[in-house]
């Protein structure tokens, strides 16, 4: 029965873990994305995911090896540094946010590429294309011989480490958003009211950006920056067109993110086979594409797609 | 050690035919990108270029597939650029459509378009990698740009395209400046802001497409934004921002191209961007007026004026001054001696300051309006605000305390 719908042992080995990682990454990015969209800061996600590259390269140059924690620290440091630089250019130079962002992320990205090309990283798994596309397809579970392996401690110990890491990050972000729900909501919709209530508005701002940076860095390692940017923006944007209530918007965004990850991965892995082609296409690219299709459908048909007060067409 | 002569020969166009064409093409592209970017920046739409640039990738992929399907080898640069222009146009339309037709803001539209188009482009690239026909090698250079291994025909396309883009900017500079500077005024002159914005977007597309091969689609955004922001530090006038941005863009692209020609392992795009970023940093720090150092200096001067004024008032009222900065300012101006006792000059100035303060108090009572009250900052001498007659009137009132009720 399970075999008949294509969910046999092969699926467990080759597709289960990438799909789970993809879903977790999508959820981790979409959650803070909801607040970024409402605060007109959607492109912060874009900026952060570009500057993760120099952070990782510097971490590699310092430690000399591709290990997880130094790279995560390097990337997170670069992300926060870039937010600092953007703020400094805005305040000190009195430059509008978009332009300040453009200057910062392109410069840091260029520095990252140059460092990468100049340093001897050819022997290790570190290059620009990998950074952009990620390698979701390669996060397979070789010891996963079938659904029974889910109960086998030895096989479970062999799960790709990205799975656990992404699960921890996604859970942490969910918990933080749930715990700080009220201040997040109030400061997003009415900053003045939030100030009157004595909420630390500046700190909340920084907190949201830090959440986004953590999500971007964790997801970047596993799935590349394309998914990160797409998941920050597309599912929350589509969800924004579905409802006027923040609770429901977040719910919809998680549904859309999960749907993009699952459908995108399946289309990338199995889609070409339906057309008789042998190899699969980029899963990261396909997930981004599917999220775009969902957004287009939302733009065309979602109930709250227009600005309130705007005349409806007959 | 042979890098410097190689750089100099590239800089003086002695490094061979291709390198010369690329340097000229890059310089022209830099001029076009700088000026077009300045208009974008003045219209506050700098990041639209990010969406346009990322949206070129699927066009490059589809054009490659189409050319291979028609029996070519797929690497014809003109064909690839035509494809990229079409998909960049579609991306731009998508941004406009989402912004106009839905409640989503422009930044969300930009982010959605750039990630989805780019993601779809990557899907196409992986399809191309599995194709047996066509020579796909080098297609990735559109991501980050590459001038190594560029054919003569490619270099020629870039040089000619750059020249055409500069010519287009020169032709449209007046209406574009008007619209960027004051869209409402431009409309009263009969210029359609909408149409000029459309023209601006076409120019952005052209710059992005020409820049693909040199700096790549991710970094072309830098060439549009950085020179414009840099130029903004040096002037308050829109036309000068445009001219300066064109110059800065041209210099960074030309110097960057020469640098990378001298050291083949150095990728062109990042070097050009870093040269531009270097000039940006210098401007952020050192520009007069808007620069950080100038602001610090102004702040310090203001602080000294405040301390001078308060110190003089304290002298006049014969209060003890404890503030070290106030003491230092007074001493350096020769108004007090080292032991803190006022000099003759100090006493005279203190008296004048006290009179000024008294006149101000009276003026604020008498002229309860914006023109006068708005100018009071505790520093400006009243002579700069009121006429001699008005001050005389105030002095008359001051001489008869108690009359003002």
Automatic annotation (TrEMBL), chain A:
GO terms for biological process: response to zinc ion; transmembrane transport. InterPro entries: ABC_BtuC-like (IPR037294), ABC_TroCD (IPR001626). The chain crosses the membrane at residues 12-31, 43-63, 69-90, 97-116, 163-181, 193-216, 222-242, 254-275, 281-302. It is a multi-pass membrane protein. It is found in: Cell membrane. Gene3D superfamilies: ABC transporter involved in vitamin B12 uptake, BtuC (1.10.3470.10). Keywords: Cell membrane, Membrane, Transmembrane, Transmembrane helix, Transport. Its main location: membrane. GO terms for cellular component: ATP-binding cassette (ABC) transporter complex. Pfam families: ABC-3. Belongs to the ABC-3 integral membrane protein family. This is Metal ABC transporter permease.
Automatic annotation (TrEMBL), chain B:
GO terms for biological process: response to zinc ion; transmembrane transport. It is a multi-pass membrane protein. Keywords: Cell membrane, Membrane, Transmembrane, Transmembrane helix, Transport. One of its GO terms (cellular component) is ATP-binding cassette (ABC) transporter complex. Gene3D superfamilies: ABC transporter involved in vitamin B12 uptake, BtuC (1.10.3470.10). It comes from the Bacteria. It is found in: Cell membrane. InterPro entries: ABC_BtuC-like, ABC_TroCD. The chain crosses the membrane at residues 20-42, 51-71, 77-98, 110-129, 149-169, 199-226, 238-259, 271-297. PANTHER family: ABC-TRANSPORTER METAL-BINDING PROTEIN (PTHR30477), METAL TRANSPORT SYSTEM MEMBRANE PROTEIN CT_069-RELATED (PTHR30477:SF3). Belongs to the ABC-3 integral membrane protein family. This is Iron chelate uptake ABC transporter family permease subunit.
